[in-house]
């Protein structure tokens, strides 16, 4: 590993000049967080944002820009390491493990370079737990949901699959682009956890499928922002009041196709022993969202750990089989794994 002081800064490319069909997303500016009035206004904006688009920006989120820049530099330094070094960190993908370095397909079949390749996404996933905790019996919460309910599902001292991810999408050559059937780096999907945070990404490629219209819109980079989306666990816990957002990663516009796209993302997931049942909440009851797909179908309700393990295993099997072969497979009774067009 290079010594920490030798890590060179990561330079972001300029934003595209193309006039893309951008998503119109709300910005939740946290500078007003902390007063009763500010919090009440933010809560309203947040409810509106998660219930309409499911994607939104957050600014003034309290992480200094130098720290964000440092993470991009670390991601870059990691991908510059020799392949033998990175191969030491390949997880047991076939069994739903994911932390470490992941290539697009099984390492045995991975290309030995990291250049352009169909769906050549390299993922380095860093768990942020201090120490693993042995499995605990599932805990079935809870009286009425308190204001800090979601915070408590993501406590630092419990075991979960939250992680920071450095993700490198290799650029495509013109020949490879010509061979692409769907023009995508990654197919339409939903994420597993509660929310995903994408640190400002100047290479336009992320596209959001709008709930209301089914149309795909481009996510525009906004300075100093996180682009946040709602995910599967949040949908389960709210009985579908909040939907898991469908998104995909497309080929960038022509003026950004010459670069690899390095992403920095945080995937937030509730602790593994949380049972994914609908929260007992007056807000949900008033709005009529009292059962998620497991409860409505009379299925056993999985814990977050069970759901994560099975969905990741399915994703991995699907990646090996290519394309949309395993679409629609029931991966947990009551929940189908799907890629969306
Ligand atoms: O790279 C991006 O912009 C999004 C990646 C993504 O959707 C994912 O890794 O789940
Ligand atoms: Fe995603």
UniProtKB/TrEMBL annotation:
Signal peptide boundaries: none
Domain annotation Non-haem dioxygenase N-terminal: ranges: 28-98
Coiled-coil ranges per UniProt: none
Family: Belongs to the iron/ascorbate-dependent oxidoreductase family.
Pfam families, sorted: 2OG-FeII_Oxy (PF03171), DIOX_N (PF14226)
Gene3D superfamilies per the UniProt record, alphabetical: B-lactam Antibiotic, Isopenicillin N Synthase, Chain
Region of interest (Disordered), ranges: 121-146
Residue ranges occupied by any Isopenicillin N synthase-like Fe(2+) 2OG dioxygenase domain in the UniProt entry: 186-267
Lineage of the organism: Eukaryota, Fungi, Dikarya, Ascomycota, Pezizomycotina
SUPFAM superfamilies the record matches: Clavaminate synthase-like (SSF51197)
InterPro entries xrefs: DIOX_N, IPNS-like_FE2OG_OXY, IPNS-like_sf, Iron_ascorbate_oxido_reductase
The species this protein was found in: Apiospora hydei
Protein name: Uncharacterized protein
């Amino acid at each position: 590993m290079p010594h920490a002081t030798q890590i060179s800064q990561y330079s972001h490319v300029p934003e595209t000049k193309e006039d893309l069909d951008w998503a119109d997303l709300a910005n939740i500016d946290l500078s007003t967080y902390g007063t009763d009035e500010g919090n009440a206004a933010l809560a309203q904006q947040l409810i509106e944002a998660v219930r309409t688009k499911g994607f939104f920006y957050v600014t003034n989120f309290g992480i200094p820009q130098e720290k964000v820049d440092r993470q991009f530099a670390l991601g870059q330094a990691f991908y510059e390491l020799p392949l033998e070094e990175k191969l030491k960190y390949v997880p047991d993908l076939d069994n739903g493990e994911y932390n470490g370095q992941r290539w697009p397909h099984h390492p045995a079949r991975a290309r030995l370079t990291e250049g352009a390749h169909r769906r050549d996404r390299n993922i380095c996933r860093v768990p942020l737990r201090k120490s693993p905790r042995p499995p605990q019996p599932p805990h079935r919460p809870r009286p009425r949901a308190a204001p800090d309910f979601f915070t408590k599902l993501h406590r630092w001292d419990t075991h979960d699959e939250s992680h920071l991810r450095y993700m490198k999408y290799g650029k495509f050559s013109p020949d490879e682009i010509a061979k692409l059937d769907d023009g995508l780096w990654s197919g339409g999907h939903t994420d597993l956890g509660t929310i995903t945070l994408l640190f400002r990404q100047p290479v336009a490629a992320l596209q959001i499928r709008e709930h209301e219209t089914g149309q795909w819109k481009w996510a525009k980079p906004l300075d100093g922002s996180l682009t946040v989306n709602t995910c599967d666990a949040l949908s389960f816990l709210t009985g579908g009041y909040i939907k898991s957002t469908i998104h995909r990663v497309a080929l960038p516009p022509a003026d950004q196709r010459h670069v690899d796209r390095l992403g920095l993302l945080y995937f937030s997931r509730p602790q593994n022993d949380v049972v994914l049942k609908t929260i007992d909440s007056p807000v949900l009851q008033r709005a009529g969202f009292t059962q998620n797909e497991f409860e409505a179908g009379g299925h056993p309700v999985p814990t977050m750990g069970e759901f994560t393990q099975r969905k990741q295993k399915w994703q991995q099997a699907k990646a090996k089989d290519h394309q949309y072969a395993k679409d629609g497979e029931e991966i947990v009774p009551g929940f189908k794994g799907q890629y969306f067009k």
